[in-house]
Sequence to fold (109 residues):
Amino acid sequence: MGGIVGLHQWPVASNSIKAHVENMCASIVHRGPDDMGIFVERSVGFGTRRLSIIDVAGGHQPLHNEDGTVTGVFNGEIYNYRELREWLIRCGHTFRTKTDTEVIVHARE
Fold:
């Protein structure tokens, strides 16, 4: 099933944000026992617990677009992600995984 967590903290204390996001991810380990990923930038942090189903070996999240300007986590399933992925490749995007999540960060642009 997986799960995602997020936090916005102002004023910014990035060490505190990272610790809070790690604790939140630890509290939902039962939702996604296979992997954990965290992203912290300025006043925002988010994390994910992953139940690996698609691209088990390569689908670590958070995922980024080619230049790192878009970062995302996702918990769900995009049923037509293969078709969307092929369309985005034709539009010039480069993929590093075979996950449905990566389609989101590229389609966002």
In short: The first strand starts at residue 3 and ends at 8. The beta strands are 3-8, 35-41, 44-50, 63-64, 71-72. The CA atoms of residues 88 and 107 lie 7 Å apart.
